[in-house]
Sequence to fold (666 residues):
Amino acid sequence: MTNPATVATIQAASRDATLSVTREQGLDLWRQMILIRRFEERAEQAYTEGKIGGFMHLYIGEEAIAVGALAGLNPDDDVVTHYRDHGYALARALAPNALMAELYGKATGICKGKGGSMHFADPQKHFWGGYAIVGGHIPLAVGLAFAAQYQNQSRVAVAIFGDGATNIGMFHESLNMAKVWNVPLIILVENNQYGMGTAVHRASAVPDMITKALAYNIPAVQVDGNDVLAMRDVMMHAAQNARCGEGPQFIEAHTYRWRGHSMGDPQRYRSKDEVEKMKTRDPIARFENRLRESARATQDDFARIRAEVERVVAESIEFAETSPFPEPSELYTDVFAPEVVNG
Amino acid sequence: MAEQSYRDAIKAALREEMQRDERVFILGEEVGVWGGTYAVTRGLYDEFGAKRVRDTPIAEAVIVGAAMGAAMGGLRPVAELMTINFSLVAIDQIVNNASKMFYMFGGQFSCPVVIRTPAGWGQLAATHSQSFEAWYASLPGLIVAMPATPRDAKGLLKRALRSNNPVMFIEHARLYNVTGEVPDGDYTIPFGVSEIKRAGRDVTIVSYSRMLHVALAAANQLAQENIEATVIDLRTLRPLDLAPVIESVKQTHRAVIVEEDWVSCGMGAEIAARIGKDAFDYLDAPVERLGAIEVPMPYSKPLEALALPEEKHIIARVKEMVR
Fold:
């Protein structure tokens, strides 16, 4: 049985990791976070203008988790995520143009306009997609981790989802089998305190998600998900363990979602005061201050990066708006993969 | 050609493909040490070891989901579900992941997983005696094979293991001991090619899986009364090849579809609609459907027998049609 001391140790390690970052690394992490935020603010605007449809779940306020977590992984580690996937796609360096065009449902979208906001994917970048059935993608990550183990590859797989998904059966089936098979899987839970509009204490029998991991004898750690460096460090630590054959690892990252669950959420389940209070823990502003206080960056650096990000995001909007919609014939393509009979 | 059981033909397909391709592995409940609930995988654990023949917890959703993930990661998994009834516990994985993956992500990747599972019955009562093939066949993006003979089972399973698409491979518990001729050497059978198993001028009987054998037996009985039936085996339900059915109906002017599933919303409903559209002017009688009585399956043996279509029902129905 993993004892709670293990958890405490890892937490302590992550707290000690204050600003273990170079100027270039720090500014790059900050750039990624501000890119996610500005990309989503522009997408939100386009949505309200009727240019983007369907369900769109914004990641604003949670950027440090995606950026920190993926910074702690290798580029060929397999990522499988939930439908709040914009942040992870951008942090895995999927092209903003193709992502914005996907939101617009255009032919130039990353999935040719067939997936939309909830289904960004790029297998070339080992980004295996956003999935929209809560918990339904966790088994896929178990399988990807198994494939790496089976082929003696050093890749790990990461399954990303929210606190709400820890209450569904597939979560429990997946953790159990991942541990029995000892696969290199990292389970990353974004605890943003609400599953849609239901607060964690109203939906989960235990307040801490790590308790559920410990039930399956999986080492687990809680981390401040609004601290990008702490996120990076716990992910590096977890990935190292998983790569060394120590089996699945579990990370619970605490954060807060600034926007509604999806566009058009009236947010009757929480107060404006609560939201405003949580915004004071803005992961981007906090990291900016830390970089500045440690004299790793100046006002000019942030202004320069901000301008560059504005250009990138403006270009993505321009690209999406001027791209064509898919040809009607596209309706019928990609139902089945081309059948190739080898032997 | 050698005589082989349906069970041994499936096992031979698995064994040959595992020898041919290192990426092929099997996962499921009791597939390893036990040798498979219906003994299909018996011996493979000893031959290929625990790495490639993997026992799992009783957890169908992760069995199927992890198989798909492994396929995305470059492997060729065969997920065995103990019976098709248990596939319901994994149905989200099959419906929302397997059949959607290629389309939803714009054709960037698929998950070529083979899900093997038997339908069937045998005093197993309401929750262990069902046929859900029509549910699965309704899904664009999922190949559904439901072979009736050892030859077709082996050829279709080998094809499934070389396919780029997810395949629901539905076996039948009451067919495992049925024997038939199986070609020597390596062969595959393509998806979406129905086969005329018997030719006759008077009526077209369309069937698949175990009911094919019942239909053939009925056809032989009918022949003694000078009624000649064509019997067509669909073999795969998606893609569904009805061209030989339409051609045949144009000759016989009568069609009856025989399935083990409940008739309402079953495969017969789909096939009857298409015959009605594509061969309407050739029909001398309404298209008929035969299937299970629409009740949950009872345990008691005589009641169970009453719930299933038999040879005599086919014979009686055909006689009414040709009269």
In short: The longest helix of chain A spans residues 23-48. Residues 184 and 242 of chain A are 5 Å apart (CA to CA). The longest strand of chain A covers residues 185-191.
